[in-house]
Amino acid sequence: MTNIVLATDGSPFSDAAARAIVEGKLLQPGFTVHVVHVAPEVTGQVRAFVSKDAIDDWHREESEKAMKSVCDILAAGQVPVQTHALHGFPSERIVEQARALNAEAIVMGTHGRGSFFDAVLGSVAGRVLASAPCPVVLVKAPDRK
């Protein structure tokens, strides 16, 4: 079976990417979507006062919340889904997961802020594009009227 990675940050932009998959706008049927959310690492100061179990629970809860919406959209469209709650630097972990799954593509929603903002703020999508082992499909959410 073909594997597709759908990276989500829990935003409406990620939901638009999930809807594009369900609507068949991007890919032919016959794939499993691996929904990936990457929670940030906590600082060493936090680790000094909070147990590893509590941090692991926080990472899992944050990822479950962020993945819920896209998983609901994909399930409603009867698309096979597996979830991956990760933590670390988002672009690196997304690319690592795509490599590990031998993914045919990475799908991401984009905020579409433009090159100036991305140059100043940085862009997870841009970093994924630069190092992905497979095609990357960026989906922009439709403008709200």
Strand content: 15-25%
**Alpha-carbon distance between the termini?**
39 Å
The beta-strand count equals 5
Strand order of the largest sheet: 3-2-1-4-5
- Using the alpha-carbon principal axes, give the shape: globular
Structural class: alpha/beta
Order of helices and strands: EHEHHEHEHHE
- The helix fraction, in percent, is 40-55%
Radius of gyration: 15 Å
Helical stretch tally:
6
Low-confidence stretches: 116-121
Summed over residues and divided by their number, the pLDDT gives a mean of: 84
The largest β sheet comes out as: 5 strands, parallel
Protein name: UspA domain-containing protein
Family: Belongs to the universal stress protein A family.
Pfam family, one: Usp
Organism: Cupriavidus respiraculi
